[in-house]
Structures are given as structure tokens and as C-alpha cells.
Specification:
This protein is 76% helix and 0% strand. It is mainly α. The protein has 2 domains: 209 residues, MFS general substrate transporter like domains (Growth Hormone, Chain: A); 205 residues, Growth Hormone, Chain: A (Up-down Bundle). The longest helix has 31 residues.
């Protein structure tokens, strides 16, 4: 059995059929909406927490650890609970998609995401805000199913393009989300619905963005129901009676010559990059003295770079170098760029400070943009057809675990050893992942031809 559904490629042209292209667009749109909603909400989490009173038990619990600002604890908890739920449920969504197909799982996840945003919008307390984000984390685990859809549709030699499109959706959501959120909570927009100075006007800062995100999810749900075609034929679906338990399947994946090491690489690379993500704005504000507006432009430059590379260049680069070599290039370049970012004041090369931070940030975005799709392509190529969803679920979970560990690690290093060192530590983790790739180069660089070889 080949790794691509026969109906997805036109045998006369070798290109995706119109139906397959439409399915790719719908899946791309779903991931884009996920990241767009996240980008709309994330920059304002501290404000949302400030709308509500912190429960007395939470204040007392935080005081026991010497924490004088319990609201900040809740801001951290909202982010942590999202990632933890995503970590737990990503493999379950993937395994379910291997059994019932990709479309019903994606539709269920979009419906759940809309429900989570509605719960977030009308949350009466901080506890409900936490529960809403937990529910969003459960259903945001549809990323693994989207990756499996791309692996179903694109032939192996073009699969990097499919993974790159997902990365492009990330980049565009990362760029547009904060800008849209700023417009939604602006005075002119809120003034259309609430009287300035009233309690409703203050609550509108939470209500309007969350309802907008819910509307986007519902729109995507309708689009999928009407336009999305199933990518996994019935005969290719996994038989649940033949499937092993989730833990057993994970252990089996870790033992595979290429997939196991690549899951480890994805974890350490994500944890390393999360050091940078967590401390990026803190470093720019405290160490470089950048104003907030300049910092937001730096974020925008990174997002645009990722979108351009993963949306246009990744296919050509993969064709020229291959995913394994491109992964090495991306990881080595990213590690060096992160170190340069941390020591840019010492290694300025006479470049204007603002231009330098933009230049180094663009390099970070570019090298990151080639690393992730290449790694995902290697993993999906070595996964059997019937376990694509489960394997990509474990892949998504390994990345989410890295995003749980990395920010805490970066914060501790920043506070104890100085602002430059989270980037050095993150680069060291990424370089460690590069060593793992080199150690397993023979297995990673091989390309299975059929299910039987996996």
C-alpha cells in the first residue's frame, strides 16, 4: 500500500485533484483559525484575569509559597492547563482519526473549540476561565489530525509542502491574531456595543474577542461540513481490535529506528525554542530597552518570515536538499541565531540596535520555518498508513510537552543567571537534537517505500 490515497493525485498530471486541493485548503483554514483565535486572546490574558476576583483559597495558597500576586499565578495556570490538556488528548484524537477518518474528528474538534470560546466569553469566575481553556486544550489537539490529513493527501516527495502549509497557517495566525485582538478591544469597536465607563464596557474586552473567535470556529465547522472530503479510505483505516493500547503504541513508536529518535528530537528542539519564546519579550523590554510597539513589529517580522518560508520556499528547498539535510541546516542555523540573539549587544557588528534585533529575529524565524516541516515530514514518511494519526498525535504531544517544560526552564535561567542564558540553554538543547539526528542519520535518511517496511 502506498503512503498516499490513490484518489488524491491526478495520474495524468501528477498533481493533486481539485477535490484534494479543496480539502487541503479547508484543513489549512482550520489550523489558521485555531492560531488566529489563540493570537487574539493570548496577549490579553493578564487583563482577562484582572476582570475577576481571585478566590480566597487561591490567595492563601499562593501566599504559602511567598507569591504576592495571585493574579499572575492564574495567568500562568491558564497557559499551563491548555498545554497539559493538549498533551494528553492529541494522541487520542490521532488514534480516533485512524479508526473513523479525519473529517469527523476535525469537525468534532471545531465544534468543541467553538464551545470553549463561548464558555470563555461568558465565564462568571476565574475557575470557569480555567475550565474553558482546559476544554480548548482538549479540542485544540486537532493539529495532529490535520498533519495526518496532509500526509494522506500529499505524495511522499511533496509531503514537506503540506507540512509547510500548516506552518504557514501558524505564522499567519501569529501575525494577524494580536492585530485583530487590538482592533476588537479598541474604543470605537467596543463603543458599538457598550456604554463607555460601564461594567459592561470593561467586560466587553473579554466578551467581544472570545465571541469573535467562537464565530470563526463555527464558520470553519460549516466549511468543513460542506466542503471537506475524507482523506482516509475505509480500507486503510485501523481496526481497533488490532490496535495496541496507547502506551504500548507509544513505546513501539519510540523503538522504531527513525520515528523514536525523531520524537525525542522534536521534544528537545521544542523545549529549546520555548526558552526563546518565553523570554523573548522580557529580554527585549529589560535588556534591549525596546518600546512595546517596536517589540510587536519584531513579532510581526518573525511571523511574516515563517509564513513566507513555509508557504513558498519549503517545497523547493526540500526538493533540492531533502528533508534530513534541511533539518540539519535549520537546527544548526537556529541554534547559532539564538546565541547571537542573546549576545547581540556584545556582538552588534556596528549595526543599529533596532535593525539588529529585527535581523536576528528574522534569521530565527527562517531557520525555525525549515526545521519543523522537515522534522514532521521525516516522521510522517516513516509512519505506516494505518497509524499516521496516532504517530502524529504522539508527535504533537512531544512538542506540547516541550512547551510545558521550556518556558519554566527559561524563566528560572533568566532570573538566576541573566537574560542571555535562556537563549544559550535553548540553543544547547537544539544542538543536542542535531546530534541525535546525526547519530541516527542512516535510518533518518532512508525512505520507506511501503507499509510493510515501516
Amino acid at each position: 500500500m502506498t503512503a498516499t490515497a490513490p484518489s488524491s493525485v491526478d495520474p495524468a498530471t501528477g498533481k493533486l485533484t481539485p477535490q484534494a486541493r479543496r480539502g487541503v485548503f479547508v484543513v489549512w483554514f482550520v489550523i489558521f483559525l485555531d492560531l488566529l483565535g489563540f493570537g487574539i486572546i493570548l496577549p490579553s490574558l493578564a487583563y482577562y484575569v484582572g476582570i475577576f476576583h481571585v478566590p480566597g483559597w487561591a490567595t492563601e495558597f499562593a501566599a504559602g509559597f511567598g507569591v504576592t500576586d495571585p493574579q499572575a499565578v492564574f495567568v500562568g495556570l491558564i497557559q499551563t492547563v491548555f498545554s497539559l490538556c493538549q498533551f494528553v488528548f492529541a494522541p487520542l484524537w490521532g488514534r480516533l482519526s485512524d479508526r473513523v477518518g479525519r473529517k469527523p474528528v476535525l469537525m468534532a474538534s471545531m465544534a468543541g473549540f467553538a464551545l470553549a470560546w463561548l464558555m470563555f466569553a461568558f465565564a462568571p469566575s476565574l475557575i470557569f476561565l480555567l475550565l474553558a481553556r482546559a476544554l480548548a486544550g482538549v479540542f485544540a489537539a486537532n493539529l495532529s489530525t490535520a498533519q495526518a490529513y496532509m500526509a494522506d493527501v500529499f505524495p511522499p516527495e511533496r509531503r514537506a509542502k503540506g507540512m509547510g502549509l500548516i506552518g504557514m497557517a501558524f505564522g499567519m495566525g501569529f501575525v494577524l491574531g494580536p492585530a485583530i485582538g487590538a482592533v476588537l478591544v479598541s474604543g470605537p469597536v467596543l463603543g458599538l456595543f457598550f456604554e463607555p465607563g460601564t461594567p459592561g464596557y470593561a467586560r466587553g474586552h473579554l466578551l467581544v474577542p472570545a465571541l469573535f473567535a467562537a464565530a470563526l470556529s463555527l464558520a470553519a465547522l460549516g466549511l468543513a461540513a460542506l466542503k471537506l472530503s475524507e482523506s482516509l479510505p475505509v480500507e486503510a483505516r485501523a481496526n481497533p481490535r488490532q490496535r495496541k493500547g496507547q502506551v504500548a503504541e507509544l513505546l513501539e513508536a519510540l523503538r522504531k529506528p527513525a520515528i523514536g529518535p525523531m520524537l525525542v528530537v522534536y521534544f528537545v528542539a521544542t523545549a529549546g525554542f520555548a526558552n526563546l519564546e518565553a523570554m523573548f519579550s522580557q529580554f527585549n523590554k529589560d535588556h534591549l530597552g525596546l518600546p512595546q510597539s517596536t517589540n510587536m513589529w519584531v513579532f510581526t517580522c518573525i511571523g511574516v518570515t515563517i509564513a513566507l518560508v513555509q508557504g513558498g520556499l519549503i517545497g523547493r528547498l526540500t526538493k533540492a536538499l531533502g528533508s534530513p539535510r534541511l533539518l540539519l541546516l535549520g537546527q544548526l542555523g537556529l541554534a547559532l541565531a539564538m546565541i547571537w540573539f542573546g549576545f547581540q549587544m556584545e556582538w552588534s557588528l556596528g549595526i543599529n540596535a533596532t535593525l539588529l534585533v529585527i535581523l536576528v529575529s528574522v534569521l530565527i524565524g527562517a531557520f525555525s520555518a525549515v526545521s519543523n516541516p522537515s522534522l514532521l515530514t521525516i516522521i510522517s514518511t516513516h509512519a505506516s498508513r494505518s497509524t499516521q494519526g496516532g504517530t502524529m498525535g504522539f508527535t504533537a504531544s512531544s512538542a506540547t510537552l516541550g512547551r510545558i517544560v521550556g518556558p519554566l526552564m527559561g524563566g528560572v535561567i533568566y532570573a538566576k543567571w541573566g537574560p542571555q542564558w535562556p537563549f544559550v540553554a535553548g540553543a544547547a538543547l537544539i544542538f543536542l537534537g542535531t546530534l541525535v539526528v546525526l547519530a541516527r542519520w542512516r535510518q533518518v535518511a532512508s525512505v520507506p517505500n511501503s507499509d510493510s517496511e515501516h
